[in-house]
Design goal:
Layout: H1 2-15, E1 18-19, E2 27-34, E3 43-47, E4 53-58, E5 62-72, E6 98-102, E7 105-109, E8 115-124, E9 128-133, E10 139-142, E11 148-152, E12 157-164, E13 166-170, E14 175-182, E15 188-192, E16 197-201, E17 207-213, E18 218-220, E19 225-227, E20 238-239, H2 250-258, E21 272-273, E22 278-282, E23 288-293, E24 298-302
């Protein structure tokens, strides 16, 4: 059933393709899908090789998507092969937008290997999100109340006016998160290799912080009570490894994004993250919030 729904949605996206303003030869693909049970929170999973993801929560019941080509990454040869001489080149300018639904889970992807594709998505407020891209775009989320998992190997992550819990990871980009409310039971994590982590949470939040920044500083306006490393707490060691775009396939790049791999194209590194953590509590302690950085600052702020 899932494959059947996916094929129908693919046709809908192609039929909805409209030219961009100004007569450009790029297209906008559009599609909308509703969860099977709109009375229960849904889950939206978005995967790109290259491109940006922008998600906004709204009061509707459908997940709506607009996909645009933002940048050509692989140049099309202007010199035809011997067999193609005398024939006209037909350029592929569609995004390849795909939406697949399985119950209350909707998966969104696009043909983003040869070209970066930007996705603009609206989801019901209470949807949970799992978002992955490897670069050539940022991840931005606004106004959702579900759990957000965001991974951008080479780009920024911005979570604005959200509630609930988040896990955000970037190899080479800033992470900014502003929480309206936080889930009092769920842990959270924020990590980047090269960039600042700037997180704002309500002043009444009860949490235990695990903080590490090898070449940066840690700042906060919370009254943090520093504590020894909790008994039984084990340090995680994350090793940065890089692969060249010219040797990696789309599947390998996407797999690395899904496993929170650190990608720094053309440079190999062996940096360990999380081996110099300090611990502290606010408002008596609570779920653990992890902040891990290497070449940037960590800023933990109270909501004003």
């Amino acid at each position: 059933m899932k494959r059947q729904i996916a094929s129908v949605i693919g046709i809908m996206a192609m039929l909805a393709a409209l030219p961009l303003a100004g007569g450009q030869d790029s297209l906008v693909d559009k599609a909308s899908v509703a969860f099977d049970d709109p009375g229960k929170p849904g889950r939206v999973e978005v995967s790109l090789i290259f491109g940006g993801i922008t998600i906004t929560g709204y009061s509707g019941k459908e997940v709506t998507v607009e996909a645009r080509i933002s940048e050509k990454l692989v140049k099309e040869s202007e010199k035809p092969s011997e067999k193609a001489k005398g024939l006209k080149l037909i350029r592929i300018n569609t995004t390849g937008l795909r939406m697949e639904k399985d119950g209350n889970t909707i998966e969104i992807s696009a043909n983003s290997w040869k070209q970066a594709v930007d996705l603009t998505i609206k989801v019901p407020f209470n949807a949970s999100l799992e978002l992955h891209t490897t670069g050539h775009g940022d991840i931005t989320v606004h106004g959702v109340t579900g759990v957000v998992e965001a991974n951008n190997s080479n780009g920024n992550i911005t979570l604005n006016n959200i509630s609930g819990a988040a896990m955000a990871s970037s190899a080479n980009g800033h992470i900014t998160a502003v929480f309206k409310n936080v889930d009092p039971e769920k842990p959270m994590s924020f990590s980047t290799w090269n960039g600042d982590i700037d997180v704002t949470i309500p002043g009444s939040t009860k949490a235990t912080f695990k903080m590490s920044s090898s070449r940066g500083n840690i700042y906060s306006d919370f009254d943090i009570k520093m504590i020894p490393k909790p008994e039984g707490e084990e340090e995680e060691v994350k090793t940065g490894r890089a692969i060249g775009v010219e040797t990696g396939t789309a599947a390998r790049l996407l797999a690395r994004a899904r496993t929170n791999a650190r990608v720094a194209v053309g440079v190999r590194s062996g940096i360990s993250l999380g081996t110099d953590s300090v611990y502290g509590t606010i408002n008596g302690g609570g779920p653990q919030f992890q902040f891990r950085n290497f070449m940037g600052d960590i800023l933990i702020r109270k909501t004003k």
